[in-house]
Amino acid sequence: MSSIELTDSQKKILQELVDLYRESESAVKGEAIADMVDRNPGTIRNQMQSLKALQLVEGVPGPKGGYKPTANAYSALDIQEMDEPESVPLSHNGDMVESANVQEIELHSVHHPEKCRAEIHIQGSVRDFHEGDTVTVGPTPKSSLAITGQVDGVVDTDNTIILDTKTMEAPAED
């Protein structure tokens, strides 16, 4: 299913639907998605028709209706759904972020400290993160890795924060 090629706009809308659905655990109104991605509700309805045709979204009729992501949506966005994911703390400018969980950490150029970058993939929205913000990730469950850095970029189509790492700590095992 991950062979579906989505446009950046479709990815952003689908990712926002997944984020809002996780927060509310109920159908998401098109207007709520439109507000979050700064688009017209009519545009969202048109995109949802395309996403329905691709079997990534299902419509829920009625007054409490809206849209729900299908299992295929998680696959198309390369999101692994777990019943009870291990929690990895995330703080933003010193405040814990309760509405997000770290899904994956990718380290780049660790051998070159001045250029060390970390890609932090999270479950939850990255809309409140901005360049220059301070972020701390961890400690991770297995290695107790903790990373602190400044946001160097945000990729909202796949909920990724790019950090210019300042510190990385993992306690040495005895």
Automatic annotation (TrEMBL):
It holds the Pfam family WHD_HrcA. Gene3D superfamilies: Winged helix-like DNA-binding domain superfamily/Winged helix DNA-binding domain (1.10.10.10). Signal peptide: none annotated. Residues 5-82 form the Winged helix-turn-helix transcription repressor HrcA DNA-binding domain. GO terms for cellular component: cytosol. SUPFAM superfamilies: Winged helix' DNA-binding domain. One of its GO terms (molecular function) is DNA binding. InterPro entries: Tscrpt_reg_Rrf2 (IPR000944), WH-like_DNA-bd_sf (IPR036388), WH_DNA-bd_sf (IPR036390), WHTH_HrcA_DNA-bd (IPR005104). This is Transcriptional regulator. The lineage of its organism: Archaea, Methanobacteriati, Methanobacteriota, Stenosarchaea group, Halobacteria.
